[in-house]
Amino acid sequence: MVGHLNLILRLAIWFLLTADFSLANIIIGVAIAFLLPGRQKTPEALKDWLRVLGEILVAIPQAYIEAFEIIFRPHKYENITMERVKPGRTPGLIFLDIFLITFTPKTIVLKYREDGWYEVHRVRRRKNS
């Protein structure tokens, strides 16, 4: 089941990059999804995938709320923080975590560090003490 989720994630990324649903592009996308390197030795748990997908669904209204906050109440301060990657994350789940953080207007992942940290840029309304 989790292998199917990896395939779907690869195809979704392909279609987001190409924005073309022609038959030729679908065939190319499926071929590329199958040709990309296989699974990691760390097995992914279906519950981790479902949890991340649930968090993405929750992030959609949060993104709209943050966008309106930035429009109507300007955020003048910013900082860069380090966030720890959850243990046992595979590359697919790390990608979804980065997507989740970057999806909201107030945060963006600047860098994923191989030692297990994300560098996250945030904008804030008030300066921290």
Per-chain topology:
Elements: H1 2-18, H2 23-35, H3 46-72, E1 77-84, H4 91-103, E2 107-113, E3 117-124
Helix pairs in contact: 1-2, 3-4
Looking at this protein, list some descriptive labels.
129 residues; alpha+beta; three-stranded antiparallel beta sheet; 4 helices
Can you offer a commentary on this structure?
This protein has 129 residues and is an alpha+beta fold. It has 4 helices and 3 strands; from the N terminus they run H-H-H-E-H-E-E. The protein has a 3-stranded antiparallel beta sheet, with helices on one face. A hairpin with a 3-residue loop joins strand 2 (107-113) and strand 3 (117-124). Helix 1 (2-18) packs across helix 2 and helix 3 runs parallel beside helix 4 (91-103). The longest helix has 27 residues, at 46-72. The chain is globular and about 50 Å long.
Care to give the gist of this entry?
This protein has 129 residues and is α+β, with helices and mostly antiparallel strands. It has four helices and three strands; from the N terminus they run αααβαββ.
Largest sheet entry: 3 strands, antiparallel
Low-confidence stretches: none
- Structural class, from secondary structure content? alpha+beta
- In spatial order, strands of the major sheet run 1-3-2
The percentage helix is 40-55%
Order of helices and strands: HHHEHEE
Please state the average pLDDT score.
84
Percent in strands: 15-25%
- Rg, alpha carbons: 17 Å
Please give the count of helices: 4
Q: How far from one another are the termini? A: 48 Å
Shape: globular
Extended strand count = 3
